[in-house]
Amino acid sequence: MCTKKPHRHSIHCILPPYILSQIAKNGNDPQRRFAVDTLSVDVSFRQFRATAVASGAPKAMRGAMPGTAAALKRTIYDAKNDQSLPGTVVRTEGSDATGDVSVDEAYDYLGATYELFFDQFQRNSIDDAGLPLDATVHYDEDYANAFWNGSQMVFGDGDGELFTRFTASIDVIGHELTHGVTEVEAGLVYEGQSGALNESISDVFGSLVKQYGLKQKADEADWLIGAQLFLEPGPKRQAIRSMKEPGTAYDDSVLGKDPQPGHMKDFVRTVEDNGGVHINSGIPNRAFYLAAVAIGGFAWEKAGRIWYDSLLDARLKPKSTFQAFAKLTRSNAEKLYGVDSAEAKAVIQAWKDVGVIK
């Protein structure tokens, strides 16, 4: 798990704690060991992060001054299977590929995420002020997760049996960097519905990064998150989440069954996972999918713009609920495209279809 308590600058991991807990119960001996070890590392990091947050603003949020000329600046570090961060510099902006697939994927996908936000939303990096993008690969041994810690991205190599390297999915990198955008713009408290919104917004833009790179229209995309993470993907291990059909991403004897609901009638009330932030994010995820497909075309152009403007909307508060966010997306759709527009109607219907509004 990746948060100690709800606060603005939480550690955000892509692999939910409930998946690791299931592996720790159901896996073979090596699988149980890596799951327990990964959970232990995640706990240590969130405790460290809580202490760092108490002492002041994180380094990553101290970017260039607003108005700085747009310039992508990436630095990739190698932890060499140690736990020290950031590690040794192995690739910097403009340098050639290294031949280390994790290093080069991290470099390329950081760039792809920057490109989507800059090209489509005129956003200059995470803080909109040219913040350099840093990432560390080869973190720890058999570490099966990736996270944004408020300063940089960190990627494990996976356990080598269930999970491959965590740089393999472009949407994972887009997801984690979007947590930084959300920290800057909305500070959504990482608990309950606001925390699930936080997770969902990261899934939305993570998926859009992947779709943008593939030049896919909404009805062509798979709407899966982390589909490339499994070493042996298949019908029972499609991805870690499905935005199209929450609850169907995986179902096997080791991972358990995907617990995500896609409708408010199935909302999961739990104290685990910070009040179900990874679980209940399936509801707003499906709303975005429904809106994007109904609007049609490239999802980043209209549906993505509506969600992005709603993320930046001053009316979005740290403890906003699904319903509050739904109202913002409706308001921004009407502002962008008109009260009686097909786009506004698609957004309203999507939230109705998942039971958030009547």
How would you describe what is shown here?
- The chain has 358 residues and is of the alpha+beta class.
- It folds into two domains: 58-185, Elastase, domain 1 (Roll); 192-353, Neutral Protease, domain 2.
- 42% of the residues lie in helices and 9% in strands.
- The chain has helices at residues 17-26, 29-54, 101-121, 170-185, 192-214, 273-276, 282-295, 303-312, 322-337, 342-353, and strands at residues 12-13, 74-78, 88-92, 133-137, 146-148, 153-155, 224-225, 241-242, 251-252, 256-257.
- It has a six-stranded mixed beta sheet, with helices on one face.
- It is globular.
- 55% of the residues are buried.
Topology:
Blueprint: E1 12-13, H1 17-26, H2 29-54, E2 74-78, E3 88-92, H3 101-121, E4 133-137, E5 146-148, E6 153-155, H4 170-185, H5 192-214, E7 224-225, E8 241-242, E9 251-252, E10 256-257, H6 273-276, H7 282-295, H8 303-312, H9 322-337, H10 342-353
Parallel strand pairs: 2-4, 4-6
Antiparallel strand pairs: 1-5, 2-3, 5-6, 7-8, 9-10
Helix pairs in contact: 1-2, 3-4, 4-5, 5-7, 7-10, 8-9, 9-10
